[in-house]
Amino acid sequence: MVSKAAGKKAVSAGAAHGAGKGKGKASSPPAASKFPDRIFAMASPQSVGGVSMFTPGLVPTVDTLGLHFSDDEVVERAIAALSEAGFEVLQATNLMVNFCGSRALFDSAFGAHLYTQERPVHKPGGVEGLATFIDNADTDIPGLIDPAGTVFEGVLDGIAIEEPYYLHTADSLPPTVNYFHLNVPDDVSVGLNAEHPHRSGITGKGVKVAMVDTGFQTHPFFTEHGYLVQPTTWGPGTADPTVDENGHGTGESANIFATAPDVTLFPVKTATATGALVNVTAAFNAAVALGPDIITNSWGSDQQNGPLSAANQALAAAVAAAVSGGITVVFSAGNGGWGFPGQHPDVISVGGVNRERNGALRASNYTSGFMSNIYAGRRVPDVSGLVGMLPRAMYIMLPIPEGCAIDVGNGGGTHPNGDQTLTNDGWAAFSGTSAAAPQIAGVCALIRQTCPRLNPAAIRDILMTTAQDVTAGTNHPNFGNVAVVGPDTATGHGLVDAHRAVLIAKLRCRIVRPVRPLPPIVPVIPFRPPFGPIVPVGPIVPIIPFRPPFGPIVPVIPFRPPVGPIVPIIPFRPPFGPIPPIIGQDDEGRMESEGMSLTDQDVTEIERFIIESPQPPEL
After folding, report:
1. Which of 141, 333, 479, 501 is the most exposed place for a label (fewest CB within 10 A)?
2. Kind plus residue range of the DSSP H or E element containing 42
């Protein structure tokens, strides 16, 4: 349960939020927009650690996650209480319970004073606009409901009202257009230096990648390339999973296959409403439940300062739980906004670099980069993928469902404000950090295939260590950060280099040639006397009789008695253990696997060579 001091909203704070008359409120709420028929929310069952994930000033990360888990029995009580009150329970984990209901039900069950408020957001395409948020007049934390004084007290720590989140943006062959752009898969693969590991068999085979987005719809491009796509998983509250009405999820998934053509993709469709993604935390948890190695996310909200809303606190906890469980989580940094969860410290945050026709690299002025005001010392992004430039970043030609929202919205016109394709041809040019995140998720899959035991933090470190430094250009005008030598807030550590990343992963995993087993040492066969009489091989010839020498025998050296007593010869003693085999060339693999060949200094020097070499060796 949220403490009254922490959860109850002061009058001054409420006025700042524009909240209306409720518990402790003196002013009236702003004119209400229409409430949706279903309000989605995340309930936090009472935690084992006794610390609510909604505690002010506490942002859930891998380091604090253990404080917020709940016992199975408590989760079951929470589900029962919500169901008995009339709510529809959609999903449950040991961190949170996802449910929905009408405004009237929320008011009656929790005694909440809900209202709607229009707030500025960054919508797809980097467009600034307004979106409707649902808030509670009774608490300081935006979107939080405190169950104190209700039947849920002692069962729930708090309830987070979900918020809108936005995307950070059919022939099997793309259409021909007369402006410079990239085609999938080849141009993206070459641009991120992924063709080298592909040639050596590092293609992401056996790695599971989940993608939380608008869904996936079949397209000839994916069929003809033979990509492995599992049936779309429904996020709670989602409509038909076989249809991608927007097209974003379908198109961006091509970026995954461009860098990791043999991964298995698990699309997860999240609910949408009025152009926004809703109930995304539940969709993210649905992705976690699939047991993937990697989850890629091309969406987020705009969070410049704290405190985080209750919905974002719940989302932060879900992200931390996934990473704590060994899942590598990739998020786009944003297209002009302060991307969240792109700034969460446990994720791989991805920005953008533009590769021009002549191969020159510069920071994309379409993408976000900043020092987080929520997480001290957190630089965003970590690394960058390939992204276009303002005004609309129409840069990568991607396959989408014919006539979907993006097909219609981007089609026609003249570049750079239109992609010069038809509005129903199943192709569109777009990018943004929405495209960069799945590109880098694919590279993570290559690293994962190379060394499955690397954890998410190690994978992120390899990406940052091996990225190609970008020293030209600035990021989005909202930030205007300049790309300089070394890590910066324009491109992070630079453009991801898949070839170098895989080489370093191999080195850190200490992959060596297969060790051939040594032949067993066979003991010497002991002497056994014959079982029968000795039979001569041939006829016995008599020994020639002794004949004395012709003269007297003269000793060569006169005999001298010993100086001291005669010491008996030491009898032979067998060795205490087996005789070790002689080490030869066949044992080189064994020696390396035992750490006898490479020291830490050796590894450091080899890594430096790989990173600094103009052309690293083939795998």
Report:
1. 479
2. strand 39-45
Measured between alpha carbons, how far is 577 from 171 in angstroms, rounded to an integer?
72
Higher pLDDT, 169 or 424: 424
For residues 296 and 294, give the distance between their C-alpha atoms in angstroms, rounded to a whole number: 7
C-alpha 273/C-alpha 91 separation (Å) is 20
Q: Which residues contact 2 (CB under 8 A, 6 or more apart)?
A: 52, 54, 55, 139, 141, 144, 146, 148, 157, 158
CA distance 116 to 136: 9
Task: Write out pLDDT tens, residues 184-203.
Answer: 999 999 999 999 999 999 99
pLDDT in tens, 373-431: 999 999 999 999 999 999 999 999 999 999 999 999 988 888 988 888 999 899 999 99
Return d(Cα 440, Cα 463) in angstroms, integer.
Answer: 9
Q: Which of 138, 213, 382, 488 is catalytic?
A: 213
Q: Is 44 designated active site? A: no
- CA distance linking residue 398 with residue 46, whole number of Å: 45
Active-site annotation holds for 248: yes
- Cβ contacts of 574-583, under 8 Å, gap ≥ 24: 578/521, 579/521, 581/518, 581/521
Q: Which residues are paired to 223 by β-bridges?
A: none
- CB of 114 within 8 A of CB of 124? no
User: Contact, 182 vs 191, CB < 8 A?
Assistant: yes
Identify the CA nearest to 246 among candidates 419, 100, 405: 405
Cα distance between residue 270 and residue 297, in whole Å: 11
**Confidence band of 522 (pLDDT split at 50, 70, 90):** very low
pLDDT at residue 14 in the model: 32
The position carrying tokens 């004084």 is: 149
| Residue 45 φ then ψ, to 5° | -60, 155
Angle at 575 between CA 571 and CA 579, to 5 degrees: 140
Q: Catalytic one among 68, 181, 198, 248?
A: 248
Tally Cβ neighbours within 10 Å of residue 261: 20
Q: Residues 308, 59: contact at Cβ < 8 Å?
A: yes
| Structural domain spans, the chain | 4-161, 167-508
Provide the pLDDT for residue 241.
86
* Cα(59)–Cα(320) distance, integer angstroms: 10
Q: Which CATH class is domain 167-508?
A: alpha beta
Q: Give the per-residue pLDDT at 539.
A: 58
- Over residues 490-518, the mean pLDDT reads 80
Catalytic residue among 47, 309, 364, 434: 434
CA angle, 564 as apex, 563 and 568 as ends, to 5°? 125
**Pairwise CA distance, residues 405 & 216, whole Å:** 14
Measured CA to CA, the distance from residue 230 to residue 145 in angstroms comes to: 37
Rg (CA), the chain: 35
CA distance 570 to 595: 41
- 120-157 in b/e form (b: 16+ CB < 10 A) is ebbbbbbeeeebbbbbbbbbbbbbbbbbbebebeebbb
Whole-model pTM? 0.80
Active site includes 597?
A: no
